[in-house]
Amino acid sequence: MVHFLSSLRLVQCPALPFAVISTLVAPIIVLSPLTAQANEFATCAASLIEAGVEAEAASTACAQALKPEQVSRCVVDVTNATELAPDQVLAACSRDRRPDELSTCVATIHDSLEVSSSTDVLDNCRRSVLPVRYSDCVVGLATTAEVATTESMAFCIAAGYRPVDVAPTFIFAK
Q1: Is the pLDDT of residue 23 over 60?
Q2: 149 and 113 in contact (C-beta within 8 Å)?
Q3: Can you state the angle between helices 99-112 and 86-95, rounded to 10 degrees?
Q4: In this predicted model, which residue has the larger pLDDT, 114 or 17?
Q5: How far apart are CA 23 and CA 4, in angstroms?
Q6: For the chain, how many structural domains are there in total?
Q7: Is residue 125 included in any domain, yes or no?
Q8: Residue 9 included in any domain
Q9: Which of 82, 118, 117, 75 shows the shortest CA–CA distance to 96?
C-alpha cells in the first residue's frame, strides 16, 4: 500500500502546477491574437492614408490583404523611392504575393541606376516571380555589362527559369 500511495503522489504533483499555470496563461493566449489582428489592420490603414491613399481605397486594400502591414510598408517604401502616385503603387503592392520583396526590388533599382520610367520598374518587379533576384539581375547587368537600364530589365524579365543540376538524361520540353 505504501508503495502505491507514493507513486500516486508523484503522478499528482506535476498535474497540479500544470493546471494552475494553464488556467492563468490560457486567457492571455486566447485574447492576444485578436488585439494583434485589430492593430495590424489599423496600422495598415493609417500608413496608407498618411502616404496619400484615399481612406476608402486604404480600408478596402487593408481588409482584403492577407498581411496588411506588408502591403502598407510596400506602398510607403515604393512611394518614398519613386515619384509614382500612391494609388498606382497600392494597386501593384496589393496584387503582389511578396509585397516586401516588391518594394525592395523597386528601391534597389532606383537607388543603383538611372531610371527613365518608374512605372516600368514597378511593373517588371511586380511581374517577376522572385523580385529581389530580378533587381540583382538588373543592377548587375546594367553596371557590369554597361547595358541601359531598360535593356537590362528586358533581359532579366525574359530570362525565365532553367533547371540546374538535373540528371544527364533530362531532355528539355520545348
Answers
A1: yes
A2: yes
A3: 130
A4: 114
A5: 29
A6: 1
A7: yes
A8: no
A9: 75
Residues 104-161: tens digit of each pLDDT: 999 999 999 999 999 999 999 999 999 999 999 999 999 998 889 999 999 999 865 5
- Does 146 reside within a domain? yes
State whether the Cα torsion 18-20-24-27 is positive or negative.
positive
Residue 20 to residues 14, 25, 122: CA-CA distances in angstroms?
10, 9, 54
**Predicted local distance difference test score (pLDDT) of residue 20:** 66
Q: Is residue 8 part of a domain?
A: no
For the chain, give me the number of helices (H) and strands (E)? 8, 0
Query: 13-48 b/e with 16+ CB inside 10 Å = b?
Result: eeeeeeeeeeeeeeeeeeeeeeeeeeebbeebbebb
Higher pLDDT, 39 or 135: 135
pLDDT score, position 4:
56
Place of cell 494553464: 22
Domain of 61, in residue numbers: 17-157
